Every structure is written in C-alpha cells, then in structure tokens.
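re: ur question from earlier - yeah i can do the single chain one, its not a big deal. heres the input i used so u can compare w yours
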Amino acid sequence: MVRVPGDEDVVRRGRLWRPLFIVPALAVYALFVLWPLTQTVRYSLYDWDGITVATPVGARNYVEALSDPAIRDALVHSLVFVVFYAMLPAAVGLVIAGVFARIRVRGMTFFRAVLFVPQVLATVVVAVSWRWIYAEDGPLNQVLGLVGLDRLARAWLGGFTTALPAVGLIGTWIMSGLCMVLFVAGVQKIPRELFESARIDGAGPLREFATVTLPHLRGELMVALVFTTTFALRNFDIVWNTTSGGPGDSTKVASIFIYQDAFVSRSVGSASATGVLLTAVILVVTGAIMLAFRDRSAA
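and the output i got, formated as tokens:
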C-alpha cells in the first residue's frame, strides 16, 4: 500500500480526538447515575426529613437498618424472589433451547414473539392482571373448581404461606420469555457439526445438552442471570401493585421499605441507608455470578 505524505498526521490527530467522543456518554452517566448515587450515600449519613436542616448521625442509619429484623426478612424475601425470577426462568429457557437444538419447529418467530410478550407489557398491567387471576373468584380458582380441586381454591395473594410464591410465579412468567429468547439465539450460533458429531458418538439428548449446548450458552446464561437477579432484588412495582408487601410483612422487600421511609415516614436518611445496602447486595450477587461464569480460557 502506498502511503500518501501526511497520512500519519491524520491518523495521529484521529487518535487524539477519539476519546472525546465518549465524553457526552460519560457526562450523562455521571449526571444521572454517579451524582444520585453519591448524594444517596451522603444522605444516608444524616437524620433528615427532606425539608428541615439535616443532622449528621454517622453510621447510625446503617446500624439500625442492619439490626432491624423486618429488613433482614425483606432481604430473605428478595433472595426467594431470585429463585422465581432468575433460576426457574433460566431452567425453563434452557429446556426450551435444548429442545429447539434437536428439533426444527415451524412458526418459531411467532412462538418467540408470544413468549416475549410479558417483557414488553408494563409491569403495572401485569400486576393488575395477575391480581385478578389470583382473586378468590378469579380464573385460577374457577379452573381448580372445574377439575374438582375446589379444596385448593383460596385467595392466593391473601394467604401468609401462598402470597410470596404467588408473586414469585409472576416473575417467572415475565422472565421466562427473555431467557428463552436469549438461549435460543445462542443455540443458533452453535455449529451444527458439533451436534452431528455428538450424535454420531452416540450421545443422547441429555448428554448432547450437557456437552454441547450448555457449554456454548455460558455467555447468554450469565447475561440472563445478571439481568433477572438484578430485577428480582430491586423488585418493587410487581409487589406493590399486587400485595403492597402484605399480608402482614410476608411479601415485603427492601424496595418497599425504601419507598415507605422516604415518602411516608419522611426518614430520608434511613431510606438512603437501606438503598445503599440493597445496592451493595446487588453488586455482590451480580459480581459473584459474573465471576462464576467468566471465560477462564480467555484469562
């Protein structure tokens, strides 16, 4: 290739300008993410009602939050939601991806679109719809009556033992479509020769899934678990619009404590401390997931 005199200067000037293109994105990130986060940490060190003069209290809000058994129970509820919002949808998505890896399904695009619908619906709409489904005279209990299981009919969101799993299954319904779409897209990237080689070697469906499909879905599985786990831990609108944390505190999560402290009790410092702790839990859990699924061969 013949270099024109002056090309090196143009390339050098381009390299100098290149970092400036990320400045707008960094400015938006700093304004809408880093600045609110910094302010939340600062507020968590004060006793403040949002109006009057704030009083510094050090780490007292954190001590009170960590010693409050109700908040500890709320964190346990959030971890239970991780099972329903992350693990069950990932399992459902993997099973469907494994099936689609072996058989060709007609109308695949339509099937994926239908399963993805819960992701595009507003969560308030989803919550209100499921509140109707779970109602004492709702479709679920009517179906149970039709098949002779009247004794199982109940107000699913009103029972202390049924409310938490009932709300959790709503999350399973929402997230299963997302996981399925991710995993099916990942399966389509796997070379067909690998599946054919496994079958020639006599691999059955389970062995083929374990040796070919699952290892090649590591990246998609990590993305799905990080997204769904984060959604589960910061869950607010589904819980608030179905049970508001009840009955009693049986479905209360940390986000509801943050809302009630900030906008009902006007204890902005306590709400900020709980928010910082919840953020720390989310970072630790998602970091652990990313560490577990990192590609060690690339290290």
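The two ends are 35 Å apart (CA to CA). not sure if urs matches, ping me
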